[in-house]
Amino acid sequence: MNFREDFACRLSIDLASIDLEDNTFRITTDTRIDDLILSIKSVGLLNPPILIKKTSGFQIISGFRRISACLSLCMDEIPARIVDSDRKKLECVKFAITENSLQRTLNLIEQSRSFYMLSEFYKDENKMARAALELGLPDNPTFLKRIINLCKLPQPVQKGVLSNTISLAVALELEMFGKDKGVAFAALFNDLKLSLNKQREIITRVKEISIREDISVISLLETGCIRKIVKNKDMDRVRKVNKIRLYLKQRRFPEISKAEEIFKNKMKELKLGSGMQLIPPKDFEGRGYMLNLYFESLEKLNKHKVKLDKIIQNPSLEDILGW
């Protein structure tokens, strides 16, 4: 796209005439302006923003951060590239995307914003993918379809994606929960910095408990027990994660959790020691137990034999096998 042919003129524009509230064409997620302030103070505004004339004032197509930096410098006027007022919206969208994508690699949210803007004009995904390629965007239709709605997710979820505390896969799952639930999950994940598997585990547990107990996801995530763990300053992140996982597991599977606790206490009474391990059936369903022995010599094996005879006579073993 040849900007020299596409812009009608370059003018000095009164900053007060620019609509700062209209984010129709905003692509960038970065709101930091310190670096721009230093640059503009040093060498001036080398790359003027792109504006379009409206009925009253101007609308920003590209250059949101540059304009914010100029405002912070208390400038009254700035140079700007002015697009003809009769330009179609699709052309303005393409200007906005190209101005950003040709300068740097866009992050997931910025790509989503770009695709979402284009979707107003391209209903066919393959045609939109071809248009995206021309604008410096990824052109895989499957990828496009996956991320196009990321920019419509609640801000906390989007921030989690940008900071890598919420994976793309989990963000797409949260999309199905609705705004308030998504925000609640995002707050928990941002606090705990969970791995993908643990994020999915917690989402699954919470959904299952919500259905099982007929309570809302929000009330479960904001329960006193979970919030108390998260806010505990004397507990490191790993312990917090493990305690929340245990809490949700116990609440989701109370009978299994109870059986595990009993088994744990009975195992202490058996005093197996090192080199010997008793493994219960999965979820305590069934009656088959496995005994693992570790030894390096016949002497060690004979010691296990003596100890095993004592264990067989221990009432605690009868209690375990009697469930």
Concise overview:
With 323 residues, this protein is an alpha/beta fold. Helix content is 56%, strand content 10%.
Q: Count the helices. How many?
A: 17
Mean pLDDT equals 90
How far is the first residue's CA from the last residue's CA?
75 Å
* Element-level helix/strand string: HEEHEEHEHHHHHHHHHHHHEEHH
Strand content: 5-15%
Kindly report the spatial arrangement of strands forming the biggest sheet. Answer: 1-5-3-4-2
The main sheet comes to: 5 strands, mixed
Q: What oligomerization state is this entry in?
A: single chain
Shape: elongated
**Structural class of the helix and strand makeup?**
alpha/beta
Provide the low-confidence segments as ranges. 1-5
Helix content: 55-70%
Radius of gyration, in Å, reads 30 Å
DSSP summary, beta strand count: 7
Write the layout of secondary structure elements.
Elements: H1 3-6, E1 9-14, E2 18-19, H2 34-43, E3 50-53, E4 58-62, H3 64-72, E5 77-83, H4 89-101, H5 108-119, H6 125-134, H7 141-147, H8 155-162, H9 168-174, H10 179-192, H11 196-213, H12 217-221, H13 224-231, H14 237-252, H15 254-270, E6 276-279, E7 290-293, H16 298-313, H17 315-321
Parallel strand pairs: 2-4, 3-5
Antiparallel strand pairs: 1-5, 3-4, 6-7
Helix pairs in contact: 2-3, 8-10, 11-14, 13-14, 14-15, 15-17
